[in-house]
Amino acid sequence: MASFIGLSASQSQFLYRCSLPIFSPAFISSSFHLKKQAPVRRLLVLPIKCSSSGPSQDTESEAETTSVPSSSSFSSSLASSNSTYNWRAGIGAVGIIETAYLTYLKLSGSDAFCPLGGGSCGDVLNSDYAFIFGVSLPLLGLIAYGFVTTLSLQLSAKNLPFGINETTGRLLLLGSTTSMATASAYFLYILSTKFAGTSCSYCLVSALLSFSLFFISLKDVGLQEVQKVVGLQVCIASLVFATLSTSYSNLPSAPSSQANIDLPYFTTEITKESSPFALSLARHLHSIGAKMYGAFWCSHCLEQKEMFGREAAKLLDYIECFPDGYKTGTKMIKACADANLEGFPTWVINGQVLSGEMELEKLAEVSGFQFNE
């Protein structure tokens, strides 16, 4: 009987490199007695299969090495997607704040505080172009910004409603921002043609936000996906354009005449009687050189004077920025221009600038006034 060879683990790891037959030690010993007797023992060849333990480890190692960059690439892609979602949510939140403020003004019937440009900002916001089929434009903007912000947050949290997957969510954002960008482009056209020579900071900010959301969504979806839905985007843009054109087709041509405003200077009588506190405060403000900048057509300026009352208002150092009336293209006087006003009324007290109507108590606090009855 031939004896078998026992292979150790270390030997088996080495043997994967060769496939040679292994000779039995019994046969080797029998060769020394070859001349004395015929060999009875036979050559035992053990077919040893090559062990694959070595290369399999290398293969697994290579697989692990390959999987690491793949996992890293996926994590990087996921982080990039979350970043764009967060950017859209942040920009949308700014749009919500702006449109919520304008919606509140519409519902309350108040005038917006207008930065540089004076009353022209109010002319745009209070015109017929601020409505679409009778619905307030800021309210529609609030809904649009709210939808984009909410959907972006849900995509970032991977918690989409109604079984919507991420790809569908991105396409919904692209469609929404496409309609918003189209509307903003249309309104910029209206602003430049129907309200030539006027300024509307709120309109420009809203357009900037809408275009930013659109380009972020465009980049997020990718060129290949955009090419697949470009027809749908064109349809959405065309529908928005047709809706706005239909809504404004029957408007009177009056807004275009606002480009040629000719408003002569006028004064408004203050009817309220001044209180002792208002009189003392007005004297104090005059003594420290506090100035109030305003415009004759500014309703907020009139309300500020009414707070002081008839007698106290005459004691204020009030600077009229349009003493010769207002016409299209008319600039403020040098004193107002040098003060870098952002709107009316504006107070400058001890070097501190206060924009908008101020309560008398606030003016007293800023100016260091203490009323002694």
Compact description:
The chain has 14 helices and 8 strands. By secondary structure, it is an alpha+beta fold.
Rg of Cα set: 41 Å
* CATH superfamily annotation of the largest domain: VKOR domain
Number of domain modules: 2
By DSSP, the count of extended strands is: 8
Mean pLDDT, nearest integer? 78
CATH T-level topology of the largest domain: de novo design (two linked rop proteins)
- State the order of secondary-structure elements, H for helix, E for strand: HHHHEEHHHHHEHEHHEEHEEH
In percent, how helical is the residue content? 55-70%
The secondary-structure class comes to alpha+beta
Strand order of the largest sheet: 5-4-7-8
Query: Which stretches are low in confidence, meaning pLDDT under 50 for 5 or more residues running?
Result: 1-78, 253-259
CATH level 1 class label of the largest domain: Mainly Alpha
